[in-house]
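RECORD TYPE: inverse folding
INPUT: structure tokens
STRUCTURE:
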């Protein structure tokens, strides 16, 4: 009767705080039916546990605010797992029919507290106020443990903290997953696409398919059948099982693919090789491959392509696939009978990823020659072969170049490639410079670069200045490439056929004895004062260590911002035109100093030099511009020309610096600016030697860094 009253008290307490609304519940929740008397804890094992009374409940929770109301059908679907016991260490208990006092340990373990001294040590001097009566009816939910004879054998705080919730107190485990009806689905892998192979190919992948298992259980594949198709591609564009006879002469699939093997996604062979029968239907038995629950496994079909199969005009096309999973796949599962799904996932007689079989692959050979200046005594990169293979792997064993005119400056031609194993070959230049004994691997689908360089004689050893170095790739000269699949060789006679293509961009270099370069200096002015000798541009000029250089002429283009100001002699172009134009710069309109310092020597003004000023108006140069009325778009040219054998000289390896100055006082009033540019091309002439009369002057196109400009220079 007393237990009944306690249970009613629990109901009353809960009823005062529980919300009367339906709520979803999950493991760890507290639930109650609306208007019902019991509160339950939901365990992760899928069961519910009842609280016997309010004191048991309050040993775990401070109030009833977290209790959810659930529907009767939902609660009824959850089996009863038992009753909740006191939280470990929270209170002591005693049975109504037994005077012994017990401490509660983990999992509802009752441990007799053997003495008052032990009770006081565990729960304090008021220990007798921390005892709850436990109905004999609830004793069945507890178990007896070892007695506590001293405080050393039990700690209430440690006992309480040893559990996080009721589930951990009862050591509940998640309920085992209920197995449903397992299902596998056969499908085409994502990204599957058509491909091409050649006769003699060893075990290429001919088809692939994915096998996906439902999440219910693992599935073991034990057998499957695939159907092979072939299209001669010589008439109807259709695939036929086993054989096709577009032109009345049948082509058999098994003539191209004699055997077929089944592999997993990582390449391990699972079954086969199995001979391909006349009808193209291949069955694989005797294997057991597990597809994990919820997982997908890719299976691949591989087979050698016959090296000497009879092919008619066009390449043949083949395909393989599982016709119908329900009839062509065998599988088992611990979850029960396996449901099979997937009908012709690869497309059947209209395959989504067919394989084209060709007699041989193709190779593209392109020669791209370089151009520019080649320096005597150095090595020059003459050009590059680009080799690109399609549908097959090749090895190039012989290649040739024609050296036009047999230049005396060229000592040796060298060929190098960067494929694994590397390698180089050398040959003396000739009209048919051949490189034999090569082993340049060209993998299909990739490009292989083969660089060709040349060693030049030095000037003293016979290099000829201004000599041209021209190399061409001619399709009539010796060439050999071998298929790494079939071993069949192609020579230069194949150029022009679909299997071997050829292109040529000739190289063209000019032999010089040294190199000249020009660069704007980092401290070139960005502003200039209004003065008669305002620095506006600094630049450097370097002769390579190979030899000295001489400069014949330099031309500076000057564009002031005030060009086109109205009236005569109202802008800098018109005022600078007062320059004499003879061999002296009498009006000091410009100075060119070497080195680029304020105290540098003024050069280009003497009996051995001509200094000329002109204006380009409307695209036409006027060498006598005095009195000219300038317009927008006009600019000035200031030309330095040294007499023959009096050229400005730079020693081998020397870097000279220069400062270009101009009379900025001639600019119109107000904030102005100008730009200066040292021109290239025909406006810059030089000699690649330090002495002697040259057969011809070189132009600025052979000088790196030209043209070189100052950028905008402001003049306040």
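DESIGNED SEQUENCE:
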């Amino acid at each position: 009767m007393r237990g009944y009253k306690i249970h009613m008290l629990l109901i009353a307490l809960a009823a005062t705080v529980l919300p009367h609304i339906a709520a979803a519940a999950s493991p760890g929740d507290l639930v109650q039916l609306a208007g019902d008397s019991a509160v339950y804890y939901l365990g992760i094992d899928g069961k519910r546990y009842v609280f016997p009374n309010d004191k048991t409940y309050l040993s775990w929770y401070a109030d009833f605010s977290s209790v959810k109301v659930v529907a009767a059908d939902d609660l009824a679907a959850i089996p009863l797992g038992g009753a909740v016991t006191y939280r470990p260490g929270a209170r002591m208990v005693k049975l109504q029919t037994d005077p012994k006092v017990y401490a509660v340990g983990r999992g509802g373990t009752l441990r007799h507290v053997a003495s008052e001294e032990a009770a006081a040590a565990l729960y304090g001097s008021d220990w007798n106020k921390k005892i709850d009566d436990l109905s004999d009816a609830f004793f069945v939910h507890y178990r007896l443990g070892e007695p506590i004879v001293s405080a050393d054998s039990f700690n209430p705080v440690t006992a309480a903290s040893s559990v996080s919730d009721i589930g951990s107190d009862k050591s509940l485990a998640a309920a085992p997953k209920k197995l449903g009806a397992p299902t596998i689905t056969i499908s085409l892998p994502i990204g599957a696409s058509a491909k091409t192979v050649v006769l003699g190919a060893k075990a290429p992948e001919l088809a692939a398919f994915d096998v996906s298992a439902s999440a219910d259980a693992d599935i073991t594949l034990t057998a499957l059948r695939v159907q092979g198709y072939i299209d001669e591609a010589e008439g109807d564009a259709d695939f036929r099982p086993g054989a096709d006879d577009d032109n009345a002469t049948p082509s058999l699939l098994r003539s191209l693919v004699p055997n077929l093997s089944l592999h997993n996604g990582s390449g391990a062979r699972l079954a086969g090789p199995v001979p391909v029968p006349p009808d193209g239907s291949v069955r694989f038995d005797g294997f057991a491959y597990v597809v994990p629950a919820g997982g997908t496994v890719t299976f691949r079909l591989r087979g050698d392509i016959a090296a000497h199969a009879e092919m008619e005009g066009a390449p043949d096309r083949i395909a393989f696939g599982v016709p119908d999973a329900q009839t062509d796949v065998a599988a088992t599962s611990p979850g029960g009978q396996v449901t099979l799904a997937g009908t012709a996932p690869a497309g059947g007689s209209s395959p989504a990823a067919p394989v084209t079989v060709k007699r041989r692959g193709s190779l593209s050979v392109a020669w791209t020659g370089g151009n520019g200046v080649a320096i005597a005594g150095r090595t020059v990169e003459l050009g590059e072969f680009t080799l690109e293979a399609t549908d097959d792997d090749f090895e190039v064993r012989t290649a040739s170049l024609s050296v036009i005119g047999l230049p005396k400056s060229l000592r040796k031609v060298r060929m190098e490639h960067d494929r694994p194993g590397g390698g180089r070959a050398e040959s003396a230049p000739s009209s048919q410079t051949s490189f034999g004994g090569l082993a340049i691997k060209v993998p299909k689908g990739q490009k292989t670069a083969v660089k060709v360089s040349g060693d030049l004689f030095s000037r003293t050893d016979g290099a000829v200045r201004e000599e041209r170095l021209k190399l061409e790739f001619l399709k009539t000269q010796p060439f050999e490439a071998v298929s790494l699949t079939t071993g069949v060789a192609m020579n230069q006679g194949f150029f022009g056929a679909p299997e071997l293509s050829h292109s040529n961009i000739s190289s063209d270099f000019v032999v010089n004895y040294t190199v000249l370069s020009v660069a704007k200096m980092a401290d070139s002015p960005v502003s200039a004062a209004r003065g008669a000798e305002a620095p506006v541009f600094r630049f450097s000029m370097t002769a390579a260590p190979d030899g000295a250089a001489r400069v014949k002429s330099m031309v500076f283009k000057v564009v002031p911002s005030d060009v086109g100001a109205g009236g005569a002699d109202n802008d800098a172009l018109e005022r600078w035109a007062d320059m004499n134009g003879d061999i002296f710069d009498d009006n000091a309109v410009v100075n060119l100093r070497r080195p680029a310092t304020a105290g540098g020597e003024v050069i280009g003004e003497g009996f051995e030099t001509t200094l000329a000023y002109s204006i380009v108006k409307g695209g036409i140069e006027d060498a006598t511009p005095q009195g000219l009325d300038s317009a927008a778009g006009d600019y000035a040219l200031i030309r330095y020309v040294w007499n023959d054998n009096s050229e400005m000289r730079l020693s081998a390896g020397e870097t000279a610096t220069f400062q270009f100055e101009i009379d900025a006082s001639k600019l119109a009033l107000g904030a102005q600016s100008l730009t200066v540019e040292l021109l290239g091309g025909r406006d810059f002439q030089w000699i690649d030697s330090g002495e002697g009369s040259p057969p011809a002057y070189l132009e600025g196109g052979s000088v790196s860094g030209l043209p070189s400009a100052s950028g905008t220079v402001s003049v306040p």
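NOTES: The longest helix spans residues 2-17.
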